[in-house]
Amino acid sequence: MKILPFKIPRTEDVSFLVQNDDEPHLYDTLHQHPEIQITLILQGSGTLFIGDYIGEFNEGDVIIIGENVPHVFRNDKMYYEGLPELRARALSVFLDRKTFGERFFELPETQEVADFFVRAKKGLKIGGKAKEEISILLKNISDATGIDRLIKLLEILRVLSRSSDYVFLSNHIMDTDVQEADGKRLNDVIQFTLNQYHRPIGLEEVSAIANMSPSAFCRFFKQRTRKTYVNFLTEVRISKACNYLQEKDATIIQTSYKVGFNNLSHFNRKFKKITGYTPTSYRRKHHLIA
Fold it and tell me: Taking every annotated instance into account, which residue ranges of this chain make up the domain HTH araC/xylS-type (predicted)?
């Protein structure tokens, strides 16, 4: 069985699914599905995992997730505190290679879409003009029916397949032949890390979450994610720091301690290495300081 396989609840009277999520938080279990997923974040923020990528997601983001790519959208902690004014809203389209028929995407005229499907296996974040166009089309497709809905989907695929306004999220096409038990271990480790990143975490403690010895856990985690757990934990902390630094009243030193660093210079080095910015220049980029 695949890593926490997820069945998209598509009925027999539609060829692809348009899903509107409006919940306290988005579905937060590491999973994969054979459908390509095109998602617009309408409201909410948090941490995104796609393949070996860890980063933040925010309102307005357009994210593409390829076939059978492990992923999870984990909203920020405040979305789990039962505050009625906080909602996580997303609009997603799920389609597969047979949506328009068995061999539709093998036609010469659809080759550019087939190429896009291959790029999507690394996960994509859409930007620029394409992001604006896709956002509008996704909102329109939600209300469309019949052949109009199919036409809107083709328009979305046309824009995505021809655009260069995107960045790859994952560095690798991830191994999808992962057993379900291993997927559960990974999910447990991810959830534990997201809840405890703000304090020291040793390999003994996290390997116990996976019910493995530290040495076996290190091998397991590296094989499944192509990174060490220490690097993974650091990336989670820096992703959270990016969120905190976008708050005007959060100082850099407060942020470093808040995300689990006990040394400011170490935090600054890791932040620059992962984001390409110093914490100060990152805040300037987001127009939070003069």
Answer: 187-285
Provide the residue ranges of all domains of the chain, joining segments of one domain with +.
Answer: 17-168, 180-285
**What's the Cα-to-Cα distance from 266 to each of 187, 234, 239, 279, 284, rounded to whole Å?**
28, 11, 15, 12, 21
Q: Name the H helices within the chain.
A: 111-119, 128-143, 146-162, 180-196, 203-209, 214-225, 229-245, 252-258, 264-275, 279-285
Q: Do 174 and 70 touch, CB atoms closer than 8 A?
A: yes
pLDDT confidence bin for 169, thresholds 50/70/90: very high
CB atoms within 10 A of CB 128: 11
The reported pTM is 0.83
Is the separation of the CB atoms in 239 and 56 below 8 Å?
A: yes
pLDDT tens digits, one per residue of 16-36: 999 999 999 999 999 889 999
Question: Would you state the structure tokens that stand for residue 42, as one six-digit string?
Answer: 């309408």
| Burial of 150 (C-beta count, 10 Å sphere; 0-12/13-18/19+) | middle
**For residues 146 and 161, what is the distance between their CA atoms, to the nearest angstrom?**
23
Give CA–CA dist 219/188, Å, rounded: 17
pLDDT digits (tens, 9 = 90+) for 100-123: 988 999 999 999 999 999 999 999
The CATH architecture that domain 180-285 belongs to is Orthogonal Bundle (1.10)
| 3-state secondary structure (DSSP) of residue 32 | strand
Residue where the block lists tokens 């409201």: 43
The domain 17-168 is placed in CATH, from the list 2.60.120.280, 2.60.40.10, 1.10.443.10, 3.30.390.50, at 2.60.120.280
Measured in whole angstroms, the distance separating CA 290 from the mean position of its chain's CA atoms is 31
